[in-house]
Design brief:
Elements lengths: L7 H8 L17 H8 L8 E3 L6 E3 L1 E4 L5 E4 L6 E4 L1 H13 L4 E3 L9 H9 L8 E6 L9 H14 L5 E9 L3 E2 L5 E2 L1 H10 L3 H11 L2 E8 L3 H9 L1 H4 L3 E5 L4 H8 L6 H10 L4 E4 L15 H7 L5 H10 L4 E6 L4 H11 L7 H15 L21 H13 L12 H15 L25 H16 L5
Helix pairs in contact: 3-4, 13-14, 16-17
Length: about 475
C-alpha cells in the first residue's frame, strides 16, 4: 500500500500526528530586504521540545549533528590539510543554545576523529545541565572489537567531551557489514555479535547505565534489518531508551527503491512506535539532496509556503511524527542553523495537503537515477585520493538541476554537457576525480548505504569521458 492509497486520516494516524496540526505559515512580502532578513531570523524562546519517556529529558526537536564542524586550512595549500575552526564551532554552539537547542550528537569517528574534542571545548563553556551530549561507541575496525578497546573508547569520549557522564550513548551503526582482521566478510548480524556481544561490551554499557555514567542507551541503525528486529524483539531485556533511524519523505516509502538493501522509514518508525521507543532522526535531508529538489516541484512548495526554504520542508516532515524525539542536522554554517531553527521555533506540523505534495516529490526522486550517498564521509580518506562524496554530490546535483543527459537528441544537451563538465572540474580537483579510482573496494565495507562505490565510480567516469568526446550513449 502506498501513501496515496491511505486515507488522509489513516496516513496521519500512521505517522502519529496529533489533531492539532497547524496550517500554512503567513505569507506575503515585507516590502524591504532589511525587514525580510529580520523576519527570517529565528526567535528565541520558541523551540519545540519532546520528552524522553524513560528519563523525562526535555529535548529540543532540532538536534545538532557534530559530523560536519567547520574547518580551516593549515600549512601549504598543496598539503590539503585542515583543522577544526574552534572559534566558529564555539559561535555556532553558543547561537544554538541561545535559541533553545540542547541536544548535541557526536562520535569518535566524526571529523576524522576530531569532533568530540571540538564539541567538548564548545559545550564546556556552558552549564552542564543546559545541554545533552550524545555520542557513540564507534568500534568499526576489528582492532577495536575487544572489551578493553571498547571500554577505552568510551572513557576517551568522557575525557574529550569534558564530562563524567553521557546523556545519550549509542551502539553505532548496528547492522552494517564488516571485514574481520583476516579480511573475511561478515554479515550485519555477525558484525554486531563481534562488536558488542561476544566481547561482553553491551553488558558493560548496561552496567554503566545502571551506574549513571550513561543516562540513556540506544543504537543507530544502518543495514541488516535482521539485527534491528532482533534488538527490538529483546527490548524487555535491554530497555532501549531511544533508537536512531534514517527518515525523510523519500525514505518513508521508497528506501528500497533507492537502495534494495535499505528499509523504509515507515517500517522502522512503526516498529519503534509499537514499543514506545522514541526515534532520533538522521538524514532528514537525505545527504543534502532534499535541500535541492527538482525545479519542477519548487513552485508547488512556494505556493503552499512562500517564505520557507526547500530544506525547511524536509525538516518539518521529519519533525511532524509525535514519536520523534529530535531531528539531527549537521550544520556547518550559521545560515543553515538559522534556517533550521525557523522550522522548529516552533514546529508547524505538515498538513494533509502538504504530505500529499511531498509524496509526489518522493516519487520524482524514485524515477531518477540518484546515488544514495549521504556524504557521511565514512568512505574517506580514499588511499588513492579520490573524493568519493564530492563526486557523488556533483552527480546528484546535476540530476536535480536537469544537467544529466544521455544523448544529443535530448533538449538542452549542449548546455547540460558543458554544465556537467565545468561543474565537475570546479567541484572535484582532477587528481581526485572518478578516473583515479582503481576499484580496490576498501571503501565499500564502510558505506552505511551499501553503495557499490567502485562500480558507481566506473559508471560516472565512463559518462564523463563520453561527454568529453561528445558521444551519445
Amino acid at each position: 500500500m502506498t501513501q496515496k492509497n491511505l486515507s488522509r486520516r489513516d496516513f496521519l494516524k500512521r505517522l502519529g500526528i496529533g489533531s492539532a496540526a497547524v496550517g500554512a505559515a503567513l505569507s506575503g512580502c515585507t516590502g524591504s530586504d532589511e525587514k525580510q532578513q529580520a523576519r527570517r531570523l529565528p526567535p528565541t524562546g520558541k523551540m519545540t521540545y519532546r520528552t524522553t519517556p524513560t528519563t523525562g529529558d526535555r529535548v529540543s526537536l532540532l538536534g545538532y549533528g557534530c559530523m560536519r564542524w567547520p574547518t580551516r586550512p593549515v600549512g601549504k595549500e598543496e598539503d590539503n590539510k585542515d583543522e577544526i575552526d574552534q572559534e566558529q564551532v564555539n559561535r555556532l554552539v553558543d547561537y544554538a543554545i541561545e535559541h533553545g537547542v540542547n541536544y548535541f550528537d557526536t562520535s569518535p569517528a566524526y571529523c576524522q576523529g576530531r569532533s568530540e574534542a571540538a564539541t567538548g571545548i564548545a559545550l564546556a563553556r556552558h552549564p552542564r545541565d543546559s545541554y545533552y551530549i550524545a555520542t557513540k561507541l564507534s568500534n568499526f575496525a576489528p582492532a577495536t572489537w575487544s572489551r578493553e578497546a571498547g571500554i577505552h573508547m568510551f572513557r576517551e569520549s568522557l575525557r574529550l567531551l569534558q564530562t563524567d557522564y553521557i546523556d545519550y550513548l549509542l551502539l553505532h551503526a548496528i547492522g552494517m557489514t564488516a571485514q574481520d582482521a583476516e579480511g573475511n566478510e561478515l554479515s550485519g548480524m555477525e558484525a554486531f555479535e563481534a562488536r558488542y556481544m561476544k566481547n561482553g561490551l553491551l553488558d558493560f554499557l548496561l552496567a554503566e547505565r545502571e551506574a549513571g555514567r550513561i543516562r540513556n542507551l540506544g543504537f543507530s541503525y544502518h543495514g541488516d534489518i535482521e539485527v534491528f528486529d532482533r534488538l527490538l524483539a529483546e527490548h524487555d531485556r535491554y530497555r532501549w531508551d531511544f533508537v536512531q533511524i534514517q527518515l525523510n519523505y523519500v525514505d518513508w516509502k521508497y528506501a528500497k527503491e533507492i537502495n534494495p538493501r535499505n528499509t523504509s522509514g515507515e517500517y522502522l518508525y512503526g516498529e519503534l512506535q509499537k514499543r514506545g521507543i522514541p526515534a532520533v532522526i538522521m538524514e532528514p535531508l537525505l545527504g543534502g539532496r532534499l535541500a535541492r529538489v527538482p525545479e519542477v516541484v519548487v513552485p508547488r512548495m512556494k505556493a503552499l509556503r512562500p517564505d520557507d526554504s526547500v530544506a525547511a520542508w524536509a525538516f518539518r516532515y521529519a519533525g511532524t511524527p509525535e514519536g520523534v524525539l529530535t531531528v539531527l542536522s549537521g550544520m556547518t554554517y550559521m545560515e543553515h542553523l538559522q534556517d533550521n531553527l525557523l522550522s522548529y521555533s516552533p514546529l508547524e506540523p505538515c498538513t494533509p495537503e502538504e504530505l500529499d505534495m511531498l509524496a509526489d516529490v518522493a516519487q520524482i526522486f524514485v524515477d531518477n537515477q540518484f546515488i544514495p550517498c549521504t556524504r557521511c564521509q565514512y568512505c574517506m580518506p580514499c588511499p588513492y585520493g579520490v573524493d568519493i562524496p564530492s563526486i557523488f554530490a556533483h552527480y546528484n546535483r546535476c540530476i536535480d538541476e536537469g544537467y544529466y543527459k544521455h544523448t544529443s537528441r535530448d533538449a538542452d544537451y549542449v548546455r547540460a554537457r558543458r554544465a556537467y563538465l565545468v561543474g565537475y572540474d570546479r567541484s572535484v580537483p582532477r587528481l581526485r576525480q572518478a578516473s583515479h579510482c582503481i576499484g580496490c573496494g576498501q571503501c565499500v565495507p564502510h558505506c552505511p548505504q551499501r553503495i557499490n562505490i567502485p562500480s558507481e565510480m566506473t559508471r560516472i567516469d565512463n559518462y564523463v569521458e563520453k561527454l568529453k568526446q561528445n558521444l551519445d550513449f
